[in-house]
Design the sequence.
C-alpha cells in the first residue's frame, strides 16, 4: 500500500463524501442472477410480417454503499544539531512561522532541481499562491508543515523540536517525493548563513499523542498552542458596524470584539474541514499555559495583523481525533491545537443564567441528583431498576453499603458557578472497576443535551456542559494544603473534651477511611451544631505530601458537603476563572 502511486481509501467511521460499494449478504447470489439474466436480456417475438426484439435490463447487483476516506500521509521530523546528531535543537516558539517558511522554501528548491518539469506544481502545493498573491491551489491539495512545540507537562518549555509534514491524498506530488525533499534539510540563518539545525526523519513517536495523532483516543476539548489567524468577517448585519455600535453604547466593546472572534472561529473550523459542531468557544490573547506566548508576538514577519491572532479553546459536541490546525495561517505553523484530557468520571456544568432564588449549595445538589436520576431512568427504561450507583439506595430503599458499591456525588461549587457529578472511584481514590465504567457510559449518554435544571426555590437554572483541568483547577490541582469550601459534617459525634476535638478526630478517621495520607495538621476555622444535621465546621488540612483532588469528606459528601479546594488557590479563585459562553477572555493560569 505504501508503494502504490494512487489513492488509498480506508473505511470511515463517520460520514464521508466518498461512498464505495462493498459486499454484503446476498451479493454473490445477486451477481449470479445478473449473469444468468444477462444471457436472456433479448427476447424475440415473431409477428405476422416481422420479428420484434424485446430488451430486458438485468437486475442490479446487491452491494452496500459504505463511506470511505483517503487519509493524509504524515511524516515526523526532528530538529537535530548539525554537529551532534543525538542533540535536539530548540527553536523559539514565537518564531514558528519563520521556521515553517524556511523549511518550505528549502523543500521547494530541492524539488525544483530534481523535477524541473514540475516547478509549477511544486509552487502550487507548497506556496498555494501566484506571484500576484491570488490563490492558485485548493487547500485540500496543499502540503502542510506543522511545527510542534514541546508540550505534555506543566513545565514543558514549548520550544519547537519536531515538525510534522502532512501530504493530502489529492496532492499533485507523490508523498515519497515530498518527504525526500524535507529529509536532511538544513535550517540556515538568513543573515549569517550558519546552519542552525538539520531536519532528520523520526519514527512515529509517542510524542504525537499530545496532539491527538496515532492514538485511538478522541477528545472533545481542544486549545491552541500557537495562536490561530482568524478569517476576516464582513462588517455587515449582526456582525457588522451597527451591531457593534449598539453594544458599544452599553460599554461592551470588548464583549463585541470577543463575540466577533468566536464567530470567526466557527468559520475557521469549517475551512479546516471540522465537521463537529462547536459547543463552547473561548478566545483570548493570553496563552492557556504559563510557558506559552501571547498571540501578538507571532505577528512579526507574517502577513497577519495582530488583531487577527487569537488563542482559542473549543469544546465540540463530540470527540474528534487530531491533528487539528485551524485558521488562515494553518500552512505556516499557526493555529496548532492540542487536546485537553478531561478527568474520567467528573461531569461539569456551568450555571449560565436563571435562578435568583435560594442559592443553597445543598439544595442545588439535591436538585441535580433528582435530575440525573430521572435522565438515567429514561436512558435505561422504566422496566430496569435504577442501580445504586446513581441513587445511593438499594432496591428496598436502604442506603447503599460501601463494601458492595459506591455511588455518585453531586456537588454545587458556587464560587465558580458550576455543578459537578463525581464518580465514586474518584471519591474513594481507587481505580474504576468494570461496573463503574459501564455505569459511567450510561451516565454520559444520559447527560447529553442537559441544559436546564429546575431547582425549586433556587429557580430554573440554565446549564452548559463544560470541563475542568486536573493540573490547575482549584478542586483537582495537586497541593499540600486543602481548605473546605462547604461545611464538613461529622459522620459520628465522638464524646471528647470539646466540639473542635470531636470534629478533628472525625476528619482524621475520614482521611484514613478514604485512602488519604495522614494530615500533618488539622485546623478548625469554625464549628457549630445544627438540629437535625449535627456537628459541622470548616477545616484546613495540611499534608506532608502532595495530594490530588477532588477531596470530599464527611457525612454529606455525596451532596456536596465537605468539599475541599487547594488552600493556595482558594483565596485567588473567582467567578471570572470560569468561562462564560463564547466570549470569556480571562486566562486560567493567572496571567
Sequence:
Amino acid at each position: 500500500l505504501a508503494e502504490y502511486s494512487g489513492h488509498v481509501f480506508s473505511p470511515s467511521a463517520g460520514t464521508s463524501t466518498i461512498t464505495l460499494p462493498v459486499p454484503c449478504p446476498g451479493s454473490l447470489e445477486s451477481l449470479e442472477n445478473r449473469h444468468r439474466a444477462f444471457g436472456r436480456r433479448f427476447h424475440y417475438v415473431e409477428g405476422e410480417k416481422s420479428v420484434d426484439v424485446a430488451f430486458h435490463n438485468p437486475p442490479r447487483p446487491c452491494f452496500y454503499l459504505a463511506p470511505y476516506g483517503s487519509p493524509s500521509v504524515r511524516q515526523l521530523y526532528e530538529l537535530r544539531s548539525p554537529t551532534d546528531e543525538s542533540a535536539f535543537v530548540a527553536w523559539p516558539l514565537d518564531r514558528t512561522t519563520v521556521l515553517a517558511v524556511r523549511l518550505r522554501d528549502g523543500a521547494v528548491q530541492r524539488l525544483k532541481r530534481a523535477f524541473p518539469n514540475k516547478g509549477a506544481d511544486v509552487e502550487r502545493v507548497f506556496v498555494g499562491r501566484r506571484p500576484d498573491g491570488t490563490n492558485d491551489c485548493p487547500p485540500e491539495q496543499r502540503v502542510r508543515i506543522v511545527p510542534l512545540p514541546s508540550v505534555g507537562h506543566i513545565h514543558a518549555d514549548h520550544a519547537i523540536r519536531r515538525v510534522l509534514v502532512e501530504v493530502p491524498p489529492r496532492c499533485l506530488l507523490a508523498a515519497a517525493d515530498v518527504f525526500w525533499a524535507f529529509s536532511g534539510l538544513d535550517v540556515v540563518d538568513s543573515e549569517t548563513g550558519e546552519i542552525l539545525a538539520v531536519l532528520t526523519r523520526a519514527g512515529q513517536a509517542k510524542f504525537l499523542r499530545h496532539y491527538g495523532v496515532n492514538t485511538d483516543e478522541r477528545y472533545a476539548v481542544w486549545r491552541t498552542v500557537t495562536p490561530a489567524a482568524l478569517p476576516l468577517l464582513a462588517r455587515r448585519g449582526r456582525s457588522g458596524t451597527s451591531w457593534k455600535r449598539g453594544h458599544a453604547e452599553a460599554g461592551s466593546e470588548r464583549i463585541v470584539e470577543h463575540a466577533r472572534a468566536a464567530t470567526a472561529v466557527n468559520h475557521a473550523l469549517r475551512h479546516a474541514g471540522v465537521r463537529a459542531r462547536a459547543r463552547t468557544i473561548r478566545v483570548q490573547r493570553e496563552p492557556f499555559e504559563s510557558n506559552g506566548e501571547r498571540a501578538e508576538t507571532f505577528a512579526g514577519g507574517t502577513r497577519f495583523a495582530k488583531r487577527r491572532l487569537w488563542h482559542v479553546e473549543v469544546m465540540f459536541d463530540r470527540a474528534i481525533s487530531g491533528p487539528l490546525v485551524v485558521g488562515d495561517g494553518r500552512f505556516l505553523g499557526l493555529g496548532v491545537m492540542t487536546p485537553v484530557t478531561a478527568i474520567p468520571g467528573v461531569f461539569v456544568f456551568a450555571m449560565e443564567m436563571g435562578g435568583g432564588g435560594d442559592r443553597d449549595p445543598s439544595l442545588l445538589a439535591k436538585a441535580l441528583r433528582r435530575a440525573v436520576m430521572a435522565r438515567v431512568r429514561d436512558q435505561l427504561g422504566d422496566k430496569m431498576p435504577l442501580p445504586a450507583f446513581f441513587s445511593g439506595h438499594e432496591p428496598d430503599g436502604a442506603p447503599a453499603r460501601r463494601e458492595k458499591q459506591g455511588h455518585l456525588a453531586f456537588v454545587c461549587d458556587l464560587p465558580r458557578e458550576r455543578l459537578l457529578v463525581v464518580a465514586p472511584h474518584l471519591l474513594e481514590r481507587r481505580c474504576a472497576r468494570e461496573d463503574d465504567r459501564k455505569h459511567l457510559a450510561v451516565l454520559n449518554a444520559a447527560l447529553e443535551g442537559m441544559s436546564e435544571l429546575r431547582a425549586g426555590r433556587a429557580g430554573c437554572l440554565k446549564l452548559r456542559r463544560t470541563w475542568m483541568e486536573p493540573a490547575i483547577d482549584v478542586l483537582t490541582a495537586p497541593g499540600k494544603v486543602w481548605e473546605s469550601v462547604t461545611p464538613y459534617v461529622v459522620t459520628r459525634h465522638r464524646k471528647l473534651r470539646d466540639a473542635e476535638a470531636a470534629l478533628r478526630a472525625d476528619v482524621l478517621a475520614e482521611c484514613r477511611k478514604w485512602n488519604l495520607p495522614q494530615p500533618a495538621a488539622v485546623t478548625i476555622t469554625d464549628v457549630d451544631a445544627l438540629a437535625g444535621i449535627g456537628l459541622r465546621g470548616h477545616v484546613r488540612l495540611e499534608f506532608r505530601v502532595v495530594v490530588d483532588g477532588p477531596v470530599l469528606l464527611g457525612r454529606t459528601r455525596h451532596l456536596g458537603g465537605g468539599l475541599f479546594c487547594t488552600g493556595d488557590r482558594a483565596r485567588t479563585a473567582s467567578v471570572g476563572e470560569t468561562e462564560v459562553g463564547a466570549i470569556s477572555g480571562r486566562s486560567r493560569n493567572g496571567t
Notes: The CA atoms of residues 154 and 327 lie 26 Å apart.
